[in-house]
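Reopening this one. Same input as before:
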Amino acid sequence: MTEAPTYTASEIITILSSRQLKDGQIVFAGIGTPLLAATLAQRMHCPGLTILFEGGVVGAFVEPGKLPPSTNDQRCTKRANMVLGSADVLLLLQRGYVDVGFMGGAQIDRYGNLNSSYIGDPAKPKTRLPGTGGGNDISSLTNMIVAMKHEKRRFVEKVDFITSPGFIRGGNSRAESGLPAGGMFRVITELAVFSFDDKSREMKVLALNPGVTREELQDNTGFDLAFDNDVSVTEPPSIQELTTLRMLDPDRLFIA
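Same output, byte for byte:
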C-alpha cells in the first residue's frame, strides 16, 4: 500500500489555490503564495495562463528556484511577453482584460473584505502592515482568489480597515458602493475552501480539507460560519503536485 504524501500548511494552500485557475485565464498575482500558485498552475494544467505583476510584467514564466521576492524584481521579466509601466498594467484591470485577481491579506471578514494596512486603532495601531499597493485596484476590478493561513485573529467579524474590498456589507452593497463588477470568488486556507453566497454574499464553506472537522474550522474562525448544502472534502495534494511545487521553490521561501 502506497503511503500518502505529507505536506505543510503552506503547500496545501498553494496547491488548492493553483487548482482554482483555468487554462487561458489572465491572472493578476501578488507576491508569495499567489505567485507560486499561479506558477504551479502553469506547469500542471494551465500552460496558457497569463500572469500579470503589479511591477508591469505581462506573461511571466518564473524559472524554478528563481522566485522573485517582489513584483518589481527583474527575475519576473525573463521570458515574459512584455514589460509595461505600473500604471499601464493597472489600466488593463480597468479595461476588463483581467479574469482573476489573486492575493493574501492579514485579516478577512465574512464578506471577503481584506485588511493589509494596520491592526488596531487607526490613531495608534498595534501593527502597521505593508498597505495596499495595487491591492485595492485588483479587488475592485476582478474576481478574487484569496490565499491565507486560517487563524481566528485573521478571520474576524469586522476587519480593522478595508484595504481591498470584498462584498463590503453583503447583499448589493458592493455595487451600491460603485463597484458593479468583480467580487470574491474563493478563499483558500489550510483548513478549507470557501465560496460566497450568491444573495447574502457571506462566506460559506465549500469544502473541508482532509482530516478537518466543522468544529475545528469554526473554532479557528472569528465569526459564525455558513456551510454549503453539499460540503465536500478536497482532494489531497498529489505526489506530482508536491514534486513540481518543491522543484519551483527548492529553498522553501513560500512553502515552509
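So the earlier flakiness isn't reproducible anymore. For the record, The first strand starts at residue 26 and ends at 29.
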